């Protein structure tokens, strides 16, 4: 089976390439730099050098694909890039598409990311190609944004109060995408909300990270402004700070990302990874 991957060197894409290669699929992943190509090879895939802004490269990527992963980064060009992939596929190969979206994507969402994903989904639905939508919850790996600061200060500072989150390990999202890409006819047309099997809070995450690392990390609720300032100071996502501020201070604080489910187990046959196991495996992030 030939699988084409867009986003294969990212948080979800890297473990996905490893999983697919082990499953025996032949995986080709778009790689925009020689370093990305090296990472694709290291994860067991075949790189195709090219950029999402280049329709010809996308055409070559999906020329013999039996299914396509559409996962793009949250950048200002995201919608154009997704539409380009959808259109090239619809006018050539018409392979089933697994699109990674967000929960509650809608045209009138206050979150730009959710409006962008909604518009891409509408375009995908309109092209008449088989597709599946994966709506992951909040990735545990998002803590990378604040991990260095937390390790340095001993404080996990987020504007989320005691808002519960059905956090999901991105490796479970990779596993889910792997199953959908290798069994597209089983899941065609499905819209899957994929979250973890337990809610966590800032306090419970700090406690699990403290236990894993063997040193004290406490949780502190901060204002949206302080959070956004710290992100900019630490060199993260200038173009995303508005969305991230709203996401943490409103969406998460008010429990809108709460509510675990059994989707990982239903789709993959394996239990969802837990936050304590994530904490054990990522102590170096918080050192
Ligand atoms: N984080 C969350 O909690 C969460 C929850 C729900 C949904 N999502 C969605 O998940 C997606 C992000 O997934 P992720 O965290 O795995 O992504 P990521 O780590 O940011 O990786 C982005 C991938 O896209 C590639 N890429 C970026 N620009 C490119 C271009 N111009 N041409 C070719 N490749 C390009 C990157 O390649 P390089 O390695 O070369 O940079 C990388 O492989 C977003 O759409 C987001 O909305 C995230």
From TrEMBL:
Gene3D superfamilies: NAD(P)-binding Rossmann-like Domain (3.40.50.720), UDP-galactose 4-epimerase, domain 1 (3.90.25.10). SUPFAM superfamilies: NAD(P)-binding Rossmann-fold domains. Signal peptide: none annotated. Residues 2-241 form the NmrA-like domain. Transmembrane segments: none annotated. It comes from the Bacteria. It holds the Pfam family NmrA. This is Uncharacterized protein YbjT (DUF2867 family).
């Amino acid at each position: 089976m030939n699988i084409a991957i867009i986003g294969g060197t990212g948080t979800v894409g890297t473990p996905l390439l490893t999983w697919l290669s082990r499953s025996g699929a032949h995986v080709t992943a778009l790689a925009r730099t020689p370093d990305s190509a090296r990472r694709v090879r290291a994860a067991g895939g075949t790189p195709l050098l090219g950029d999402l802004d280049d329709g010809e490269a996308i055409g070559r990527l999906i020329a013999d694909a039996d299914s396509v992963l559409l996962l793009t980064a949250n950048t200002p060009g995201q919608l154009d890039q997704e539409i380009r992939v959808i259109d090239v596929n619809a006018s050539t190969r018409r392979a089933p598409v697994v699109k990674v979206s967000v929960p509650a994507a809608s045209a009138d969402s206050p979150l730009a990311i959710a409006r962008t994903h909604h518009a891409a989904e509408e375009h995908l639905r309109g092209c008449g190609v088989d597709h599946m939508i994966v709506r992951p919850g909040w990735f545990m790996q998002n803590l990378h944004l604040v991990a260095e600061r937390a390790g340095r200060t001993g404080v996990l500072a987020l504007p989320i109060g005691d808002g519960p989150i059905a956090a999901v390990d991105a490796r479970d999202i990779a596993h889910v995408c792997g199953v959908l890409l290798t069994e597209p006819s089983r899941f065609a047309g499905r819209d899957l909300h994929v979250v973890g099997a337990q809610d966590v809070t800032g306090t419970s995450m700090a406690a699990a990270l403290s236990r894993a690392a063997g040193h004290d990390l406490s949780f502190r609720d901060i204002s949206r402004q302080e959070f956004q300032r710290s992100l900019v100071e630490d060199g993260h996502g200038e173009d995303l700070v508005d969305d991230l501020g709203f996401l943490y201070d409103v969406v998460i604080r008010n429990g809108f990302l709460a509510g675990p489910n059994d989707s990982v187990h239903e789709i993959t046959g394996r239990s969802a990874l837990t936050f304590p196991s994530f904490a054990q495996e990522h102590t170096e992030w918080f050192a």
